[in-house]
Amino acid sequence: MTDGAVNDRTSLRAEMLALLLEPLGVDAMVGPAALQRFAKEVDAVAQARGCAGLPPSGSTLPWVSDAVAACVEEHELARLAVAGGRTPAPGGGRSLWELKRLEGLRTHLQALEGVPVEALRADAAAVAAAERLLPEVLEPCRSADREWPEEIWRSIREIDIEPALADLSRRRGGRKAAEARELVLRHSAAAARDLRNRELVPLLEKARDFVAAEESYEAVLSERPQWWRWLAPDARFGLRSDRRDALLWAIEVRDTGAVSGSMVDMLADDSVRALIGHMPATAPVNRAVSPAASSAARLTAGLLAVASRTGIKELRAFESWYTKNVESFDRVAAAMDLWRTEPDLREALGALVGELAPGTVDTSRSAYRDIQTALREEAEARPSRAPYSAYAIESEGLVGVIRRIGALERELRDAVRAMPTARGRLRVAVAGRTKSGKTTLRKALTRDADRTGIGRGAHRTTRETSAFHVGSVTYLDTPGVAAKDDDLDATRARAACDSADAVIWNYADTLREEESTELQRLLLTGKPLLTVVNVKGKVDEPHRLQRFAQAPEREFASATGHTVRIEQVSRAVGVTPPVVLPVHSGAAHEALSTADRELGDRALRASRLPELEQSLTRLLAERAIPLRAVRLAEDVRAPVAAFHDRLIEELPGIDLALAELECSTPRDRAESLEAFRTAGRDTRDLLEAERHRAKERVSEVVRDLGGVADAQRWSDFVTGLDLEGLLSGLGDTFEQEARKRGMLLRVRASATDHQDDAQPRVRPRPDLKEQAASLGAAAVKGAATALLSSVAAKGIPKKLAVPPPAATLVYAVEGLAGAAKAVSGEVARARRAKDGWTSTTTTEAEACLDDLFDGLVAWSARITDDATAQIDARFEARSADIRVTRERFERLCGLRTAVRSALDAIDLVLARRLLALAGGDPAAIRRARRTPGVELRVWADASRVAGVRSCLRDQFVDVLTERIEIRADLGWLGTLEGTEGNTDG
Q: Which is nearest to 334 in space by CA: 345, 347, 325?
């Protein structure tokens, strides 16, 4: 195993031990050996101070083993990604591992093919809107496609349909008709060639309908998010339920905080899905019920956090080492989980902590984790999100509010998601002018006798930043600054210095202008800085090294002038001069390779390298660790503060939008119901008016009845009333009113209850021929009756054979009179029969009309009631959705107070930490808060303000690079000021 691997393994042990002991504030800077000794002391104290119920041996080992397995799997995923041609971003293996372990992911991998990132960033309300609206838009496409002729190819759309239809419809075949036919047949199968032009026309009309429906579909999509097309990619098949389910799953995973939103976005990458799909499934990491701050959970999270920067061999070596010592670690973990609730144990452990080296205890990290855990628990303790009704999506305003609230909830989960990894190795950058001896110093610090990389003559050799490890410190060997021919070296060196916890400025010869400018920049950043004046006397031969070891003061005589120069540069920018140490890096490096070990030891001591190492250790403990505590506070605070700022920005707008919805919904509901009822009343009035007009026309219709075509005549009469148009107009009115209010309404206008074939029961009309025949018979009968009556009255004449003319005339007149009377009676009877038939038929027709119109009135009433019930139900559902949204909003408002308290708690921990490191009493600080224009405002006891001010301002303002304002805590007045600060946000 290489030295680097050994150092990595040692660093991993130190980091995990520090995580195990985190509640005590022990930092990994102590080193693995010291931490292991300290853990044994904690174990002994725990057994002696009330930890009777110790866990069974190996209780934390499953957590560690599972985490190691997860880290190894992460490396394997990253390796496969590289082999597949994908270059994972920093932490990409970790992201792939998190995605791979999502429950339900594998079942949705295929459905998520081609998913746009915008769809993954949508919310459930937007998907519900697509689910509701897309089928409505696709209905014309499906209608046109329902009888789509299989013999016509999809390329039929390329035909100019309207001219082709006009030409194919020509009565006489001609050149244009033939050309149109050939045009259509070029897009058809062989079976269609036997069709005639008039048979091609209806097929082409269907194609026209389909193209028109697709155009309307495209028009709707142009007004909606383009990712809707992914949900319904083909008008022929419509909405794809598998894609909808997969998308809703991805949104739920993101909204519930299972993974971050940016990680879910990776599912839009085909190569990511392919990689995850080909990996074998493995058991998830042990997730037994345990508090987020428990020792086992900390160890798991810590291992997962370092996976990307630790090799597989180092992980396996750590697991083996942990397995050998698991019994002790289990007891230490139990003590860490009990130390807050056991006063005696806490007191005893506190005494142990006090024995550690100064600067290696950082209780702020444990405090920040507690704050973060409390905020996360408060956010997760809120009731889960209630589902919204399908009608919520019909209100764009409500959907907008739901989206804004959902975005804030996601931001809160991301803000308190994980603890930043600002611990473990400290990073120290070695910077300075080109050819100042930085690489030589690096090799001396690492005790590397190899001369490779050490510059000779005027050529610089270090062009890239490289890292090397010494104990718990990572050194960054940077390119030289102030090179004449290349500013890229300076840019790389500057970036390394900015990322480091401290800087060793390696200085040799003369402090030139370019070098002075870079040194001033570093001084102004407040970065912990140690200046090394590299004495570059020649010691490359044994006798020269011997002479230096005997009289090193001659080589260091010129260092005083360099120290004065550095102090002048520092005061020019108003900064306290850094510590300046003269060191002979070349002598220290030569001492490593000399054959005379006694000479090597004397030369190493004379080079003052041990003094440099001691000063650096002191600087790191006193300055770099506090600076790292500041960075940790910023890493914890920044996402929470960003969420708080978003709350301040968003909550007033959400409140106004919700208030508008709460006010407008009842008003819109009343207006909608009144509009629908008015439309219903208007329809009933029209029906009554039409009933009146129909009855006025009944006499005309009755004149035509009484024959064989009565049913057709009555049907024509009813059809002429245009009742279908009247009834469909009612449905159209309802749908238009609904669309005005952004709603979709289905009215059963086509399913009327009236019977178009209902007709009056009409008896046959009296026959005129029969009436004429009956008139002749009645005349003969009347004449005969009259003659017989006359004969009976006057007797039979004696001269019957030859009656007198007068008698004959009398008899004739009486016969005619009888005939006339009989005809008149028959005519009257016929008239009465006709009038009776007309009256009966008219009554029957009017009754039939009444039944028809009564049914239509009842139908319109039912349709109106159904439409108003639908609208009422939708508004009721929307009101319920608004109430649920208001509850979520109120929870956000309540969380704002919790977030503000968490921010203040973070600031208080930081301020007290800094005061303790400065030698003050942390209890003197009562409150702390970041405020606009002032980086940190501190309230302290009135009697101790001066002491707090002198400690913080004099010792740490250059470390913080912040302005600190210190005030006296005046009780209720201070509380009032705090309230005002809270208002300012």
A: 345
What is the Cα–Cα distance from 258 to 825, expressed in whole angstroms?
A: 103
pLDDT, tens digit, for every residue of 11-26? Answer: 788 888 888 888 888 8
502 half-sphere exposure, CB direction, 13 A CA radius: 27
Helix axes 805-917, 625-696, angle to 10 degrees: 170
CA distance 446 to 466: 13
- Which residue from 660, 646, 661 is spatially nearest to 892, judged by alpha carbons? 646
Q: What is the pLDDT of residues 961-974, one digit of tens each?
A: 557 788 888 764 44
What's the mean pLDDT when you consider all of the chain? Answer: 76
Whether residue 339 contacts residue 23, with contact meaning beta carbons closer than 8 Å, is answered with yes
Using CA atoms, how far apart are residues 91 and 746, in angstroms rounded to an integer? 52
Tokens representing 469 are 């490890």
**Token pair for 111:** 């459905």
CA-wise closest residue to 459 among 478, 481, 435 = 435
Q: What is the DSSP letter of 391?
A: G
**Considering Cα of 176, then 180, then 183, then 189, what sign does the dihedral take?**
negative
Which helix or strand (DSSP H or E) is residue 664 part of? Answer: helix 625-696
- For the stretch 744-758, pLDDT in tens is 676 654 444 444 446
Contact 127, 251 (CB under 8 A): yes
23 touches 41 (CB < 8 A): no
Closest CA to 390 of 880, 818, 787: 880
Residue with tokens 């260091």: 556
Which residues face 476 on adjacent strands?
A: 429, 467
Task: Give the E-state strand segments of 453-586 in sequence order.
Answer: 466-470, 473-477, 502-507, 529-534, 579-583
Evaluate whether 618 touches 579 at the Cβ level (below 8 Å): no
- What is the C-alpha to C-alpha distance for residues 318 and 316, in angstroms, rounded to an integer? 5
Residues 773 and 770: their CA atoms lie apart, in Å, by 5
Residue 797 phi, psi (nearest 5): -65, 150
pLDDT at 754: 46
CB contact set of 698 (below 8 Å; sequence gap of 6+): 842, 845, 846, 849
Q: pTM, whole model, 2 decimals?
A: 0.72
Please provide the DSSP assignment of 917-958 as one string: HTTS-GGGEEEEEEETTEEEEEEE-GGGHHHHHHHHHHHHHH
CB atoms within 10 A of CB 199: 11
519 C-beta neighbours (distance < 10 Å), count: 25
pLDDT-derived band at 381, boundaries 50, 70, 90 = confident
Q: Terminal CA-to-CA distance of the chain, rounded, Å? A: 54
Q: Are 585 and 477 spatial neighbours (Cβ–Cβ below 8 Å)?
A: no
Residue whose token pair is 């991301």: 414
Span 309-328, pLDDT tens digits: 778 888 888 889 888 888 88
Contact call for residues 566 and 422 (beta carbons, < 8 A) = no
Q: How confident is the model at residue 903 (pLDDT cuts 50, 70, 90)?
A: very high
Residue with tokens 């919805």: 661
Q: What b/e string do you get for 481-498 counting C-beta neighbours within 10 Å, with b at 16 or more?
A: bbbeeeeebbebbbebbe
- From CA 428, how far away is CA 852, in angstroms rounded? 96
The dihedral formed by the CA atoms of 827, 833, 836 and 842, expressed in degrees to the nearest 10: -100
Q: Is the pLDDT of residue 241 over 80?
A: yes
Contact 522, 499 (CB under 8 A): no
Alpha helices (H) along 223-310 = 228-231, 241-255, 261-265, 270-278, 295-306
Q: Residue 879 CA to chain centroid, in angstroms? A: 25
Question: Residue 235's pLDDT is what?
Answer: 63
pLDDT over threshold 80, residue 607: yes
Q: Which of 117-121, 251-255, 274-278 has the highest mean pLDDT?
A: 117-121
Among residues 958, 916, 740, the alpha carbon closest in space to that of 25 is found at 916
CA gap 279, 531 in Å, rounded: 52
CB 624, CB 385: distance < 8 Å: no
Q: What angle do CA 37, 42, 43 make, to 5 degrees?
A: 95
